[in-house]
Amino acid sequence: MILYSKWVTLALALVLLSSITLTRLVLVIGFIPLVSSKDKLKMGKGENSTTNSRIRKELTWEEVRKNNGVKGSDKWIVINGEVYDVTKWSKKHPGGSKVISHYAGQDATEPFEAFHAKPDFVGKFMKAIHIGQMSPDEYQQKEIVQDLRVLKETAVKMGLSKPSYFFYFCIIGHILAMEVAAFFIQYYYGFSLETFVLSVALMTIAQVQGGWAQHDFGHLSVFKSSRLNHLLHFFTMSVMKGASSKWWNHLHYQHHAKPNIIGKDPDVRQEALFVLGETMPVKVAKSGTSTMPYNHQAKYFPFLGPPLLFPVYFQFMLFRYIWTRREWTDLLCVSVFYARFALTYGPTVGILRAFMLYEATRILESIWFTWVAQSNHLPMDIEEDTEKPWVELQLAATCNIEKSAFNDWFTGHLNFQIEHHIFPTMPRHHLHRIAPYVKSLCEKHGIKYTVKTMSDGFLDNLK
């Protein structure tokens, strides 16, 4: 008992010290503007590869498409008919350089409006990188773009941009309850097969639901303040789950910008083990760079994909990202997660058994996440970038899983993946309310709107 008391005292002291340090860091980070005053001043002075002498009133698509960032060319994007040179600004872009670069040489109007909660406010800082406008003869927005704007206005009038704080309080509350219950089972009843299974089940639920929660904060869909969303995203992702919020942003926003697009969506960059869709197998076969037995991939996918994604691949990529990007704050917060886990479970069940609890949880979490996330995307179109309009692009790459109380909870409301991709900042508990309107929009424009049962979604992964 004396030895155990020393362990508990040490654990509490370290956790308290880490929490104080983390709180100070997070408070500092939380109040750093996404665009610094220095950057705003530079933009105001026109820091850009394009000088005022190059500004032209009208540009053509031929000129814009030449500046697609390929082979060292500049990066131009079009937003509502206005042309911007983001060559240098892309490196400072809060969403990451690759997200904005994926639309170089293309019309970025719809993703710009989808990703920015206040596009008019952001537009004020874009004057310095404005280089001209599209010729009226060449720039005609499709009817579906106007219809989507009307639908967004309808959603705002319906109050679908306003979150329920009680909903998110319950989400965070049940996650913490699962974490505490898993620990006290080991603390009071000791380590046995029964308690091991029960604790792992509870921790897996907590980690998966924590993953859905951080997803909401990462999409800035909970609070009006972007800083507060980033703050909670930082906490839930790094401290509660032991991952990097910046790493998640780097990957996930690319996925939303160009879902299922080869070379642009990181989620389909899997040719080392799997070939997906109709285009990738042909491309890989012509390259002759792989000897994987792809004809058997449906057999080895359940054993290599879902169970190893988190504990092996993500674990490696997480620390690789932190190290290569020098994200030391993320490293500190991730370390707090591992210290918290080791200092609570280590003295209780021993380091080896604590490691077993951790690995079992990560494997089950990985299986749960992979089957859910991929059922919405893997069976859909996976192709090269053909510059499809926003709604057509999202519907080609996503599908829904039927609504039910269990499905909503089990998937973190990502069973409404279509609506989430079209309205990425909408609070998830409202997605089912906008779904009928999205379906009507798709029917009007002849776009296929796919809804499956969960079992069909899982089976389609293998098919």
UniProtKB/TrEMBL annotation:
Matching SUPFAM superfamilies: Cytochrome b5-like heme/steroid binding domain
InterPro entries documented for this protein: Cyt_B5-like_heme/steroid-bd (IPR001199), Cyt_B5-like_heme/steroid_sf (IPR036400), FA_desaturase_dom (IPR005804), Fatty_acid_desaturase (IPR012171)
Entry-linked Gene3D superfamilies: Cytochrome b5-like heme/steroid binding domain
The organism of origin for this protein: Stichopus japonicus
Membrane topology: Multi-pass membrane protein
Keyword Lipid metabolism listed: yes
Protein name: Delta-6 fatty acid desaturase
Name of the encoding gene: FAD2
UniProt subcellular location: Membrane
Sorted UniProt keywords: Lipid metabolism, Membrane, Oxidoreductase, Transmembrane, Transmembrane helix
GO terms for MF: oxidoreductase activity, acting on paired donors, with oxidation of a pair of donors resulting in the reduction of molecular oxygen to two molecules of water
GO annotations of cellular component type: membrane
Membrane-traversing stretches: 12-35, 165-189, 300-323, 335-356
Biological processes per GO annotation: lipid metabolic process
Keyword Nucleotide-binding tagged: no
